[in-house]
Amino acid sequence: MCKSKTKTAALDPAESTKSTSRTTNRPARTAKSSSLSSSTASRIPNKSVSSSSDPSTSYGSSYNFNTNSTFKDTSTTSTSSKTSLTSLRASLPEKTHIYDFSEIQQSTNNFLANRISSSSSAWRCAIRGKDAVVFQRRFRRPIDAAEVGDLLSVICRSHHRSLVKLLGASISGDHIFLVYEHVSGASLSHCLRNPKNPKFTVLSDWMSRMQVAIDLAQGLEYIHHYTGLNLDLVHNHIQSSSVIVTEPSFNAKICHFGTSELCGEITASKTHQKEDLVEKNSKIASISSHRDLKVEGTIAYMSPELRSEGIATQKSDVYAFGVVVLELLSGEEAMRVEFDGERGEFVRVSVIESAREAVDDESGDLGRVRRWMDGRLRDSYPVEVAEKMMRLCLDCCHVDPDQRPDMRRVAGKFSKFYLESRTWCEKRSVPTDFSMSLAPR
């Protein structure tokens, strides 16, 4: 006991007072429990309570005195709690920024920084310590800074691993500068059609393409149905050049999420305000206002109703998704020019038309499907799964938008295709449970 008293005397006076006051309020214990408490107290380090106001560090050296249970030393668990809280804070989304235009100019070196491509108004830069990409877009309708701020605060609550994160925006005149996080990788169109080496592709095996397809399906499903914002969000920019493929796992990320709403291309509507609850006159006014907007995009990814009426909907996103996956399977462009020997002229061929010809074989022979698929896969894929994917994508590209499937159904089907492909690959994997000796006998 003398040894215990000597160590206890070395404690900080304030700590000693707190410990004494807490133990006096505790119920009576046996001699064995008192001895254990005394010996445990003698091992308390000489530390004062942290004065930091940070909740993750203010309890780094605290000790729990539970009046209903035994005295519990939390010095070990506090370290792991501090680490978990720090990692949790790092994983939480940052507050969306409304950048000043001068800050955008400074970050991009007055827009002399490296452009992402020569044909786009996009610059890679560092802004507020973040590696980012700045995209310049023109407003499609009059919109003020307050409305942009409201839209940003709503849209930036959405976070998904298959979406490129939106960091903030800035307004200058009739242009908006959207700041996205920079993602290392290459666009899907470049991965499939490398102009420097057309015969090579990093997506040379079936599972890498299935990974891209499932990420794209789940990302678009999240945009349409699971943002939790009570809004009917539309991407309106789904194409192979807007999908980034990352290494080494070949995960896909969708770019330009939120661009259509922030640029005024479409107006995000509440999900509970369905068209069947809106009067006919308001419908006509809404359609006419949408028609006044200029529709931009690559014609190969635009659904028939989007080209004719100029109204972007979730069904038009489904159409574009079907085109992108058909590109992924065939390796061909969405719209290409070929020479027709019978006509003696060049004609445009859509990947939708060629895919429909490949699957519309009444004999049931899958040879046409194999000839349509990308030859760089070297026939190493489950052709039955490939055919089912082609048919589902053709359903997504149906002329009638009401006949196109919902993205929840599409994502569920693609999850099933992914599992079937994994099973197929496991059955045909190279065996590794054997040994071979080359020694002379």
TrEMBL record:
Record field: compositional bias (Polar residues): 16-27
Pfam families assigned to the protein according to its UniProt record, in alphabetical order: PK_Tyr_Ser-Thr (PF07714)
Cross-referenced SUPFAM superfamilies: Protein kinase-like (PK-like) (SSF56112)
InterPro entries referenced in this protein's UniProt entry, alphabetically: Kinase-like_dom_sf, Prot_kinase_dom, Ser-Thr/Tyr_kinase_cat_dom
GO MF annotations in UniProt: ATP binding; protein kinase activity
Record-given protein name: Protein kinase domain-containing protein
Source organism: Stephania cephalantha
Residue ranges with Low complexity bias: 33-59
